[in-house]
Design goal:
This protein is an alpha+beta fold. The chain has 7 helices and 18 strands. The strands form 3 sheets. Strands 7, 8, 9, 10, 11, 12, 13, 14, 15, 16, 17 and 18 form a 12-stranded mixed β-sheet that branches. A hairpin with a 2-residue loop joins strand 3 and strand 4. The relative contact order is 0.12.
Length: about 300
Amino acid sequence: MRRRNQDAVLQTLKVESKSELLAFLLEQKVRKSRNAVKSLLANKVVRVNEKAVTQFNEELKAGDIVTIHKLSANSNANKLKGLTILYEDPDLIVVDKEAKLLSISTDTEKRQTAYSILSEYLKSHDRNARVFVLHRLDRDTSGLMVFAKDQEVQERMQKFWDYTIRKRSYIAIIEGNLEPADGTITSWLWEDKNFVMHSSPVDNGGQKAVTHYKTIKANEWLSMLQLDLETGRKNQIRVQMQQIGHPIVGDKKYGSEINPIKRMALHANELVFIHPGTKERMEFKSPIPKKMQELMK
């Protein structure tokens, strides 16, 4: 169970007329964006008459007192083993996953996965709660993931994935330098019987994969890239980097022969999507891990 310290009151607001909680908080401009206000509710730092409230549509009446409390900086309120919760509402939960943690279970690892950790976390608050996978990150890839908390939400998002997901960006450190420094890689991917992906620069009947890249910084041996996915194929970035002769640092499976930071240098740093319920544009960013930054010093 996560511990929270909410004793410090940041704001005290008096309700003058009947309203719903979310509308009231937006009207009072307690935060700059709708998403930020929702995060306050998700983190249980909003109280109505001294009672913590998370429901957006909580009915307020004239005379109610709404207080906004502060989370202790060292409370690790959103920290779970291997991941950090960035956002949560009744439909979705967005997390920042650490490297070395599987997204979902495999034949050899059943328990310690992002899925199982989130499932345990949700059940600690509601034994009937469930979590549903929307997409995956490789074990050695860190960064942003979104899960559904309802099967209908999962099905809706997956059915309209190309519309729902507006941006998926990664940071990678690759071996060598790209020429040109910025550009687009288009290839066709297929998987062999050993579950290894292959990439062809010409259409061979495989799945078309498109990745836009931009060099952020480079030295004599390595380059840091921002990669924006136009398509989301299995191991897309990894196999395309191998194909063009610049594998991702630490990616032994796809051609790298060096591993100075004991992990693959790939991080999902930006995720933008349309909320399936509210239709709002949701934007999340995750900082580049220190070990990856230190590689480029």
